[in-house]
Amino acid sequence: MASYIGRRLLSFIPVALILIVFTFSLIHLTPGNPAYTILGDQASKENVKLLEAKLGLDQPLTVQFFHYVSNTLRGDFGNSLFGGQPVINLILTRIPITLELAVLAILLSLCISLPLGILSARKPNSWIDHFSRLLALAGAAVPTFWLSLILVFLLSVTVQWLPSLGWVPLSEGIGDNLLHLIIPVFALSLPLSAMESRMLRGEMLEVLSQVYIQVARAKGMRQRAVLMRHALRNAVLPVVTIIGLQMGALLGGAVIVESIFSLPGMGQLVFNSIVQRDYSVLNGCVLFMGGTILLTNLVVDVLYAFLDPRIRYS
After folding, report:
1. H-helix or E-strand spanning residue 39
2. Angle, nearest 10°, between helix axes 237-261 and 87-122?
3. What is the pLDDT of residues 219-276, one digit of tens each?
């Protein structure tokens, strides 16, 4: 297992280099100039050229790319073109908010999908099974931004139960912190829980038809023990895979959700850096998110070996 983890960590290096090249090329080939964004459209050409020289934007793209790669390998992501703050400091102050949002969304999706998936498999074609299918259809069809706006209208504007915008740090009270995250977390978790419940239902039905399940029932084992001890443990593996694959979707959805609810996380930082064409911040955010997705996939692979003893990595 240790050698497998080491090989996977080494494989992150070429993936990170490809990600750096792709992100740098995509950002610099899009039209627009950060100097005009900073100075305004009415700025003179002389001032624009002076600012470009100060920021290093007047150099050839190959030179800019070489400097960026060499600095990144040393752990230096540069400074923001607008605020002048180090990019790594901006990321470290924003990432806890996005991680809290993503973790709560995953936990809520599991709390919804596990009971629905188990009950749907235990009682196929029942009302709970039809409800699970309806939830899966809604989760796949409803966009995150539309669901966010509907939840704000219903829970914040109409009944005024929950705040619609803003963020309260954990240091100021966990109650207020969670209260401001209820709507964003639910908006992110619904699509994930829909996919998980349908996947778990299908896997549970397949596992329950296996011979060893029938033998366990023939021995007089209680239905609850059969479901939880034998069926669920084997059926939950694809759900773990989905969580790993959906980490990218969660981070991408956080860009929309954090912009709607004014949450000062990584998503809002990415959105602002795109609008302002802040190359340094955007490159650092994309690289950091890519690394988070790679590490999540590695954790999923390791969890596979613990959940299923038949899986071993040599």
Report:
1. helix 34-39
2. 130
3. 777 777 777 777 777 777 777 777 777 776 677 667 788 888 888 888 888 888 887 7
Q: How far apart are CA 174 and CA 170, in angstroms?
A: 5
Asked if 48 and 39 touch (Cβ cutoff 8 Å), the reply is yes
* pLDDT range class, residue 308, cuts 50, 70, 90: low
pTM equals 0.78
Residue 61 in domain? no
- Does residue 64 belong to any structural domain of this protein? no
In a domain, 25, yes or no: no
CATH of the domain at 117: 1.10.3720.10
Domain presence at residue 63: no
